[in-house]
Amino acid sequence: MALSKFKNEPLTDFSKPAQRKAMEKALVKVRSEFSKEYPIVIGGEEIRTNEKFNSFNPSKPSQSVGVFQKANVDLANKAVEVAAAKFEEWKWTEPKKRAEYLFKAAKLMRNRKHEFSAVMVYEVGKTWPEADADTAEAIDFLEFYGREMLRLSGPQPVTKIPTEKSELHYVPLGVGVVVPPWNFALAILAGMTSAAVVAGNTVVLKPSSDSPLTGWKYFSLMREVGVPAGVINFITGSGGAVGDTMVAHPKTRFVSFTGSKEVGIHIYELAAKVQPGQKWLKRVVAEMGGKDSIVIDDQTDLDAAAQATVASAFGFQGQKCSAASRAIVVDKVYDKFINLVKEKVGAIKVGPSDDPSNYMGPVVNRGSRDKINAYVEKGLNEGGRLVAGGGKVEGEGFFVQPTVIADVEPGATISQEEIFGPVLAVIRVKDFDHALEIANNTEYGLTGGVWTKDRKKIEKAKKVFHVGNFYVNRKITGALVGVHPFGGFNMSGTDSKAGGKDYLLLFMQAKAISEKIK
Ligand code: NAP
Ligand code: MG
Predict the structure, then answer these.
(1) All structural domains of the chain with their residue ranges
(2) Which top CATH class is 17-288+496-513?
(3) Which residues are near ligand 1 (CB < 6 Å)?
(4) How far apart are CA 175 and CA 251, in angstroms?
(5) Most exposed residue of 113, 160, 203, 262, measured as fewest CB within 10 angstroms of its CB?
(6) What is 292-480's CATH number?
(7) Whose CA is nearest to atom 39 of ligand 1?
(8) What pLDDT, in 10s, does the model give residues 496-518?
């Protein structure tokens, strides 16, 4: 059967009773499995360790969603060794066959969509629509990278000369250590892992300790569709405890990381050190943090701009690398904009994420909540003015109010450091040019956007606003696979583009072959 063209997975309309019912059923099913324990799996062998840890429901932290094994250094070493042995076989598997595993997985994930989403509702505090979008993106990655592998496995263009027959093929790299974050617990984990594997590599997948169950669901799906044992090795436990072992292992060929700047830098440095017996320079693909801005011009639909800012700042509690954490607003409309934002934020309901009437759920864990609250305090101490939020939210969960702090100085801490929570800093600027200057004043360069009707300003911003994903007159979150290849500049990472046409090349190397014919 001919393969259809790639198309983004549609989002679920939860206003439809049938869809609501289906999601409720999935939530019940996931809840009924809360007490289960999950193994580490290396080369198909299920391993249980003495030390365990729980993954908690941040809406109700007394509730464990699953029990996981704490890997140690020996298991980390073993996982890389097993992956290295398996690579010798997997690398010869036909690309078409590898892609078929992804298409099969996409199909099953689509059929059980709500179950995957329900896991994220409980494990990381995603609301229904946020979880649904995460699952849709995971399906997109499977479909997109499968097709990309088919394209890249075909003959690649080289210049012809009469005396030789020349070809160029992409071949895999080797063992990859895949380290995703918890915030797109399924999509990013599935995207990073599937890309590496479809390109012919074997991997050790270590999900975030905040979202091992979501990682497990992906791993079991790949097992179910028949990906051979040892191609994906599933290891849980603290990144600090086993991460260095795997990154430094001489048989590790590349590291695919998405997470914070601090951990990304650490991995980059460690991977650069050539270990005894190591035969290559390791490749590191690191996608890191952001400090993303929306610029608001006076020549704009201010109400729509405020709406887009609120959606970008507070969707999934501001815990997106793409989230708007700064609104840079020209003086002329500054007060009016703040009033509009305040009004919209006032309508936001915060509470447990399994209740679909809540627009915001909890933040991911206690440490994260405390860190966000400390940033709010710091923002106010450094001269910011509290416009909305800032207070405590009742309830057992790690809830934080959507918070808006105005009159923030461009150099203030909350204007420079990634908070990764529902906190929006508003900065006053004289005019649009001044706004662009401030927009580029952090060490990051992930997403950003402008709201203006002036074509000249738009064209200027397209050139000078230095971010990997730039948006005009829309929200700055919600990148779609294939449509908005995603990844940032500067300290936001190594300039990769997930969901783009050059992403798979990061996990391959090109072999040029020439045969003399005359
Ligand atoms: P994180 O704390 O850096 O953790 C990311 C992953 O690294 C986790 O799996 C973590 O495991 C692991 N890790 C920790 N220390 C390690 C070490 N020494 N060696 C190897 N792995 C180690 O980030 P996060 O809190 O999960 O995610 C939020 C961050 O991700 C934000 O900064 C956000 O901007 C960024 N992000 C960026 C993008 C992008 O595309 N640029 C997308 C999404 C998120 P443990 O959980 O076990 O510690
Ligand atoms: Mg959790």
Answers:
(1) 17-288+496-513, 292-480
(2) alpha beta
(3) 179-184, 188, 206, 208-210, 238-240, 243-244, 247, 258-260, 263, 266-267, 287-290, 321, 418, 420, 446, 486-488, 492-493
(4) 7
(5) 160
(6) 3.40.309.10
(7) 287
(8) 999 999 999 999 999 999 999 98
